[in-house]
Amino acid sequence: MKMEKKIILGSASPRRRELLSQIGVEFEVRVSGKEEIYKSSIPEEIVKELALMKAENVASELTADERKNMAVLGADTIVVFEGEILGKPADTEEAGRMPAALQGKTHQVYTGTALLVYDTTGNRQVINHAVETKVMVHGMTRDEIDAYIATGEPMDKAGAYGIQGRFAAYIDGIEGDYYNVVGLPVSYIYQKLKEFGFV
């Protein structure tokens, strides 16, 4: 009997769930509550490290048998502006500061992904990768920023904005993968899953 292949998404992000569903990937969501502390200072390395930690934490909570013929996907996205990492805003004041800094300028979005691919015997391969996308934001007035914050949309998003939401009104352009900014470079992930026979 052929063992069924299984994909686990180790992320609570609704955007990542939507993106994987959008491309027809069947998966299960499992999130680990373990703390993630990174050591790197380079954006690409930070997201790779965090993505790997998320995947490792989820995998560590599964039995050796459960892990067989399984792919565990971890991901992490950060927004970087002039060398500073903009995470999810802690409060509305911080949520107002971020778009105010980004407006009229270009910043970078990095998403790190980690795929832990287990074969039928439980041996695994680790594919750890980061993708960068440049995002150009149109100039915004204080009233526009305040109105955007009032929607509540920025509160659970790195950099205090969602490219796929209302903030789309202020995106002048991007250089790179759009879906990477949403939270997952889906084409890259799909090709990797295909390579290992998971899709």
Describe this structure in words.
The protein has 199 residues and is an alpha/beta fold. It contains 7 helices and 7 strands. The protein has helices at residues 14-22, 43-60, 64-67, 92-102, 142-150, 178-182, 186-195; strands at residues 6-9, 28-29, 70-81, 84-86, 106-118, 124-137, 171-175. Strands 1, 2, 3, 4, 5, 6 and 7 form a 7-stranded mixed β-sheet that branches. The protein is elongated, with a radius of gyration of 18 Å. It starts with 5 loop residues before the first strand and ends with a helix. The model has no long low-confidence stretch (mean pLDDT 95).
What is the helix/strand order? EHEHHEEHEEHEHH
Runs in which pLDDT lies below 50 for 5 or more consecutive residues are none
What class do helices, strands and sheet pairing give?
Answer: alpha/beta
Q: What is the tally of helical segments?
A: 7
Query: Can you give the helix content as a percent range?
Result: 25-40%
Shape annotation: elongated
Radius of gyration: 18 Å
Number of strands: 7
Major sheet: 7 strands, mixed
Strand content: 25-35%
* pLDDT averaged residue by residue: 95
Q: Quaternary status of these chains?
A: single chain
- Give the N-to-C terminal Cα separation: 19 Å
